[in-house]
Structures are given as C-alpha cells and as structure tokens.
Design a protein that fits this description.
343 residues, alpha/beta, Udp-n-acetylmuramoylalanyl-d-glutamate--2,6- Diaminopimelate Ligase, Chain: A, domain 1, 2 domains, 11-stranded parallel sheet, 10-stranded parallel sheet, 4 helices, 28% strand, flat
C-alpha cells in the first residue's frame, strides 16, 4: 500500500500563495466535500448554493473567498478562486501507480515501430508500422496505435484506446478508455441510386496537454487534418467530425457534437449535448449552453443559448400547439398595429 500523504496548512498556504487563517499546524491528509469532510481533510466553498454547509462542516480546513471567511468555524485558506486553489491542492493527494518502462510480453509490436526505452506498453497492446511512442508515454491494456501514429512524450492512453491511422498526439495528452481517434470521417457522395464513399486521406493532430474523454470519437480529415490545439479538454462521448478545428483552451462537456469542417475558437465552453453544424465558425471566448444547437456562425464572444426551458408536459403541449400558429399571430398583430386603412 502507498504511504499516506500529509501536509500542514501553513505549508499549503505558502506553496500556493494563499492567506491562512487559523492553526498553522493543522494537518491535511486528504480532500472531501463540505458535507463529508473529516478533521484531517480539506474542503472548499466556491458555489453559494453550498454556503449553508459551512457552519456545520467537520473539515480540518476550508478553501474559500475572503468574504466567506468570517462564517467559517475551522481554519481556512483564502483564495480569489477557491475551486482553482482546491484543484491544485487536491492534486497532491492523487496517488496513481506508474508502470515500469518496457513492453509487456503479450503486446504485438510491428518491426517498423519506434518505441522509447522509457515508454510503458501494457498487456495486449498492438503497435503498427511506423508508429512512434515517445519518452515516458504510457499505454494501458488493449490499446491500439495504428500505422503512422505518434504518441507524444508523457502522454497516457488509459485502456482500450484506438488510434486508427495518421494520428499525432502532442506531449502530456491524456486519453480515457474507449476513445477512438482517426476513424473515417463521414464522407459520402450520392450517385443516382447509391452512396459512394469519399476516401478520408487526412489525419488527426492533437496538441499538448489535451484530454480526451471516455468513448469520445475524433474522425480524421478527408484531405487536411482534424485539429485540436493545445489544452483542449473533451468530456466523455463527444463526436468531433472530420476536418473540425478546435482552438486552444476550449472545453466541451459530454455528448456534445461538432459536424464536419466547423471551426471553434479559443477559450470556448461548449455545454453538454450541444450541437454545432458543419462549416460554421465560432469566435474565441464563446460559451454555448447545454442542449443548444448552433445553426449559424458566431462572430462575437459571449454566451449563446437555444431551445426551450423545461415545463410541465401539459403546458409544453399547449405552447407547442400555439407555436404552429405563431406566423398567423404575428400577421394579425401587425395588422392591428397598423390600424384601419383611411381609404
């Protein structure tokens, strides 16, 4: 078993540039929520919805804003952004075993593959011709790295990850189980009475420090590449179609989808189950709220939404029926506003 990690509160304050209030010698050995934390755990308060839990928390210490510190019954660390500070501190308590470098005896490696001596190739992995696995990279069980694929230094494929072909991962990329990168894009041409498949001759390029969620798919380009710039974060079960471009530091929540050749800017936030139609452009610093459908390009930063709010079913049915008559209502209202004709 791994040894328990301990940190004094004054050490954490100094390390992360936080103001400390309360006993400097308070020992923190883990993290938890306000409601569940014990005397040797650190909790945080960032969302006002949970402020009522502060008074009764049993945490050893709490990370919070200065305005909330007066209501805290335990030692505190003061942060401008408590959630960010908590995330950094919580990383100290994440203990993940690192596999030893080398190639597992059950792995299948093509003669033309190049694998760093410091990389770790797990059980039942398959590495194709001309594939490259960089320094310190980790491939968990059942991963496939196809021909002409590159796994950058310190990148990690957790398990059952498939890089089909012509996929390049940058440094420190994390890919979760079941993700498929580099599969065929959905390119079809119709010939009188049947479909003709359009060859997908491009690849996929993933920048440094990206994260790809479980069962997410990123298709390779038809001619050029599908591209994710540095520090793009994709949640689980996301679809990125061929020749999509996603700018640096953009994050997308689960089940969202981007159709072919769309371009998403930098520092964007895409909510869960949102959809972006093909060949559109989304500017930098745009937020798309959950379940929205983007049907036209967005040229200015800001927050955008579509769809209708949740209602009682009977009310929704009535409103849906009225929506069918909206055009007629507008015409009648316009006529009333104009008033009677003088002739």
């Amino acid at each position: 078993m791994s040894a328990t990690v301990f940190h004094r509160l004054d050490e954490l304050a100094s390390r992360y540039g936080l103001e400390r209030r309360g006993d400097a010698a308070t020992v923190i050995a883990g993290v938890a929520t306000l409601a569940d934390a014990g005397p040797r755990q650190l909790a945080f308060l960032a969302n006002p919805r949970y402020a009522a839990q502060l008074a009764t928390t049993r945490a050893g210490a709490v990370v919070l804003r200065a305005g909330d510190a007066g209501f805290c019954p335990v030692p505190a660390l003061i942060a401008v952004d408590p959630y960010l500070a908590f995330a950094r501190i919580a990383a100290l308590f994440e203990q993940r075993p690192h596999p030893q470098p080398g190639i597992h005896s059950s792995a299948v490696v093509a003669p033309g593959a190049r694998i760093s001596a410091s990389a770790s190739i797990g059980p039942l992995c398959v590495i194709g011709d001309d594939a490259v696995v960089g320094d310190g990279a980790e491939l968990g069980p059942h991963c496939v790295v196809g021909p002409d694929c590159t796994v950058g230094a310190q990148s990690r494929l957790v398990a059952r990850v498939t890089l089909v072909e012509r996929v390049t991962l940058g440094r420190r990329v994390l890919v979760h189980p079941g993700a498929v990168l580099g599969a065929d894009g959905f390119g079809l041409a119709f010939d009188k009475d049947h479909w003709i498949k359009v060859p997908q001759l491009g690849g996929v390029r993933i920048g440094d420090d990206c994260e790809i969620g479980a069962n997410t798919t990123i298709d390779r380009g038809a001619l050029g590449d599908t591209v994710l710039e540095d520090d793009v974060r994709l949640d689980n079960q996301i679809q990125i179609a061929h020749n999509v471009f996603v700018g640096a530091h953009t994050a997308m929540a689960g089940c969202s989808a981007v159709a072919g050749s769309a371009r998403i800017g930098r520092h964007c936030l895409i909510g869960g189950s949102a959809g972006i139609l093909g060949h559109l452009e989304v500017a930098d610093r745009v937020t798309i709220t959950a379940m929205s459908l983007v049907t036209h390009s967005i040229r200015e930063p800001g927050e955008y939404s579509s769809g209708t709010a949740l209602q009682d079913n009977r009310q929704w049915r009535r409103n849906a029926a009225r929506l069918k008559h909206l055009d007629d209502y507008v015409r009648r209202l316009t006529a009333l506003e104009k008033g009677p004709r003088d002739d």
